[in-house]
Amino acid sequence: xxxGQAASGGPIKLVALGDSLTAGYRLPADAALxxxxxxxxxxxxxxxxxxxxxxxGDTATGGLDRVDWSVxxxxxxxxxxxxxxxxxxxxxxxxxxxxxxxxxxxxxxxGIPILLAGMQAAPNLGPDYKARFDAIYPALAERYxxxxxxxxxxxxxxxxxxxxDDGIHPNRQGVETIASRMLPTVETFVGxxxxxxxx
Length: 199
Fold this sequence. Notes:
The protein is about 50% helix and about 15% strand. Helix 3 packs across helix 9 (about 170-199) and helix 6 runs parallel beside helix 8. It is of the alpha/beta class. The protein is globular and about 50 Å long.
């Protein structure tokens, strides 16, 4: 955040960088996660905007390819949600971790804090793959000192009523559940951004 933004007391500008889970696959724009989070944050009195930089089908490597232009100057913080498509494709967790690490380093070089949204592998990929994949997000959060929301899909896994008919993507209610569960972590993250801006 620039000194001018901090001095003006304008809204904190967040960017949600992710895949279809962020983009709001098959949902209207106001039902996508960034819009829902922004609404919930504003209801709590936070002056925040959350831009939707979700691209359906994106892998962590895809996110790395577009991070520079997807996160414009003036962004105060990024919610990073990538890796689900890597997992669904059985991508080597080392590749996913490497791409996420590179995204984080690019953003940190620009002075942009990150809230990392964790993902977990499906059990049918086997215990070895699941253990390696699930370890990516806590390891990155510890290595780079990031705010971590441990599991993005917490609260909707296994609940058909909160998914679209594909059984993978959240429906409108599913997004509301995800956003409400994430909200305390996002509020803490935003509070840290405000303190940082006022220093």
